[in-house]
Amino acid sequence: MKIFNYKLKLVLFVMAIGLTISCKKENLSPKPEPTPFSAALEAGVSSLPAAGGKLNIVITAGADGWWITTPQTDWVTITRMFGSGDFKLPVTIKANTSGVARVVTIKVNPTFNLPPVTFNINQDK
Questions:
Q1: With the CA atoms of 44, 71, 122 and 41 taken in that order, what torsion angle do they form, in degrees rounded to the nearest 10?
Q2: For the BACON domain, which residue ranges apply (predicted)?
């Protein structure tokens, strides 16, 4: 019986060492980091005449995502409200027939809780 207990203890000891060695911590890939983000009005144009027109927002986001928030108006058309990576976003402003100058605020929101970039686009009366 003593020999059996000794062999059982030896087997359990070898198994415990084997489990300890095989249970080492995995080297996981690091958390994703945000790529540099920027958004700018192409050619610095932030004002349009009463006749309306088109301008572009140049978005640089690397591989990360972005989305647009703006009040809903019938005089502003944005072709794409979300995306990822670098993109030239066209914004079309219809003619202003209201007789008063107007402004629309467009916000480009990046992922990773980075601060948004806000643009005010003015239109003459």
A1: 0
A2: 66-110
Domain that holds residue 115: 38-123
**How buried is 37 (Cβ within 10 angstroms: 0-12 exposed, 13-18 middle, 19+ buried)?**
buried
3-state DSSP percent of the chain in helix, strand and coil, to 5: 20, 40, 40
48 falls within a domain: yes
Instruction: Give every CB contact of residue 71 below 8 A, 6+ residues apart in sequence.
Output: 104, 105
Task: Provide the CATH number for the domain around residue 48.
Answer: 2.60.40.10
User: How far apart (Å, rounded) are the C-alpha atoms in residues 11 and 27?
Assistant: 30
Number of domains in the chain: 1
DSSP-derived secondary structure for 77-93? EES-SEEESSEEEEEEE
- DSSP annotation of 10: H
Q: Tell me: the pLDDT tens digits for 44-80?
A: 889 999 999 999 999 999 989 999 999 989 999 999 9
Whether residue 90 is contained in a domain is answered as: yes
